[in-house]
Amino acid sequence: MRHLILLLFLALTCPMRAEAEPMSVRCDGSYYAEPQPYFMTFDIEKRRFVFERVGGNIITGEIISANDEQLDLSLRGAGGRILLSFNRKRNMITWPGMPAGELGRHSLQHTCAGVTGRTVLSFFYQPEQFDPKRRDPVDAFSLSCPAKTVGFYFITLDRVTKTVVVENEHFSGGFSGDITNINDSVIKFTFGRGVLDPHDALWDERSRSLTLIGIPGDSSRPTMVQECIATKPRSILEGINWARLAE
């Protein structure tokens, strides 16, 4: 009995350790003397990270080792791995050099600073007049909606940048879009694979309902209304199919 009481006491007085939030930094990189900043987002508990060039490509990697001083990293590269490190005390990324004659290269050190956690808005893309700042979260949130088959699909929107990213339930790709109007608690937006495949939708924050507007006369595109859950914006790490990368 005493042991049972002690276990109950420990369960009530010792809260469970909360899962650490991913950490994002912005680093002052350069390419041939031209500024080329980039972001890195780390999930230390799951030993994963994402490299994201501003307005450019997104590359995944693994955290090889971690302590209070440093993260040792392995970035996926063309034909192999690139090893680098992040000094947590100095907020500095080091890209090692190689003293090998004609193949040699100087080591690089880039100063970094903490930023708001990067989100799946980093997957936003526009073929024309693309503004990379639209990938930066300002007033963002995500919707979790029941999918047709199994699980959920997700929609992330930013009220300020008017950016929209839709992830389907299979994580096989996403769709970019734009908020076209905000009227009180109703947000109207559009998304799709391009101008030839537009989808219009309404999110009502008060009723928590999402309306996918259909096409009159098209039985394959009826208007549908479903209830969704609003959450904090999904991390860029959540928008990657890590299981597929491990195959």
How would you explain this protein's 3D organization?
This protein is mainly β and 247 residues long. It has helices spanning 2-13, 242-245; strands at 23-27, 30-31, 34-35, 38-43, 48-53, 58-66, 70-77, 80-87, 92-95, 108-115, 140-146, 152-158, 163-167, 174-183, 186-192, 198-204, 209-213, 224-227, 229-231. The strands form 3 sheets. It has a 9-stranded antiparallel sheet with strand order 18-17-16-15-14-13-12-11-19, with no helix packed on it. The protein has an 8-stranded antiparallel β-barrel with strand order 1-4-5-6-7-8-9-10. Strands 2-3 form a two-stranded antiparallel sheet. The chain is elongated.
What's the topology here?
Layout: H1 2-13, E1 23-27, E2 30-31, E3 34-35, E4 38-43, E5 48-53, E6 58-66, E7 70-77, E8 80-87, E9 92-95, E10 108-115, E11 140-146, E12 152-158, E13 163-167, E14 174-183, E15 186-192, E16 198-204, E17 209-213, E18 224-227, E19 229-231, H2 242-245
Antiparallel strand pairs: 1-4, 1-10, 2-3, 4-5, 5-6, 6-7, 7-8, 8-9, 9-10, 11-12, 11-19, 12-13, 13-14, 14-15, 15-16, 16-17, 17-18
Summarize the structure.
The protein has helices at 2-13, 242-245, and strands at residues 23-27, 30-31, 34-35, 38-43, 48-53, 58-66, 70-77, 80-87, 92-95, 108-115, 140-146, 152-158, 163-167, 174-183, 186-192, 198-204, 209-213, 224-227, 229-231. It is mainly beta and 247 residues long.
Give the tags.
247 residues; mainly beta; Lipocalin; 9-stranded antiparallel beta sheet; 8-stranded antiparallel beta barrel; 19 strands
Average residue pLDDT: 86
Q: Which structural category do the helix and sheet elements fall into?
A: mainly beta
Top-tier CATH class of the largest domain:
Mainly Beta
The CATH architecture assignment of the largest domain turns out to be Beta Barrel
Helix content: under 10%
DSSP helix count? 2
Give the low-pLDDT segments: 1-18
- What number of structural domains do the residues give? 2
What is the CATH topology classification name of the largest domain?
Answer: Lipocalin
Strand percent estimate = over 45%
Give the radius of gyration.
Answer: 22 Å
